[in-house]
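Lab notebook: predicted structure, single chain.

Context: the supervisor wants predicted structures on file for every construct in the current expression panel, including those that have not yet been purified. This is the next one on the list. No modifications to the sequence; it matches the entry in the shared construct table.
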Amino acid sequence: MDHNEKGSRGILARFMDLLVGIGLGETMLRLGTTFLSVVMLGVVVWLSHAFYSQQQKSQGSVNVPATEPTIVVTGIASVPTQDVNAFYGIPRVAQPFTIIPSRPREDIIKYVVQDGDTVFGIAEKFGLKPETVLWGNYGVLLDDPHSLKPGQELSIMPEDGVYWQWLADNKGGLPAFAKYFGVKADAILNSQTNHLDAATVGDINAPNIQDGTWLFIPGGRRELLSWSAPLGVTRQNPASARVMGSGACGAISGGAVGYGTFIWPSVNHFLSGFDYSDIHRAIDISGNLGEAVWASDAGVIVYAGWNDYGYGNMIMIDHGNGFQTLYAHLSSIKVACGQSVGQGDLIGALGSTGHSSGPHLHFEIRSLSSFVNPHDMLP
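Prediction complete. Output recorded below exactly as produced.
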């Protein structure tokens, strides 16, 4: 080391000692560190900008048509057919999604009833109305949703309508047959489900359709039969219910008259099964076997006994003011024909007799000519 270098270092050392002596050395060190950080940050920004500009120029060199065809799949992002990813080295792969058009079912299929099934649940499963399940299976269910049991085989139609048997002696031919179900003959002829050939059928007024053939009537409707009890069973005419079973009463005169208001006939005020609907003109009230069933209003007993069409032990009360009430599936009956009862009197015990899948009270309110929704009358 020469003399000059030693002298320079000596001067620098003495200068730093002087700065430290006056308290400025540490400040200068911090300023130098800050300056170096700013310089490095600037270099990083400049390099990033340069790299981005180069990438944009390279990407712009890919020739992509202005009108780029696109395959659109519902619920999936559009996939361009042009290989714009070549620059990035990503290979083009086959489109893994296949678009299959939805095709309506044309044939009638069979369904085996499972534990826990209901007519309403089965209808919802196949996208049908509950009535359609009954209209397609009269021979099995007899228009009674309570008659559904595990193991039964049901015919499930492809759409709402009626499934009915053609008889060779049908008067009026196919037009009259179709009119009965509220449709035109063409609806039956054109249905792919029926596999009818217009040329083979010939004259629709005297069609060449084999006797006993089951036909699907798309959009058709028919009246549902009620097997519970006929309307208008009153103290003046209790014998009108004789066709329903041994519980029908004889002539009755006098007796209690109702208030025209109704109370819940059991301790529970919620449902356990079917609600009121076009195919179930009642409510099924939840309960336990043997719980009390009360008269919903005062009146006279006009039916007390077994019902032969699925309602098991059944009671009917005529309230003498144009209303009647019906109580079904009872485990026991505590009243007799012709007996007057007051509102809230014990008349029977809740049960599961007849076509019933478990303990509940089937409860109906009727007028002389129509069914009444109990929800509109109960508090």
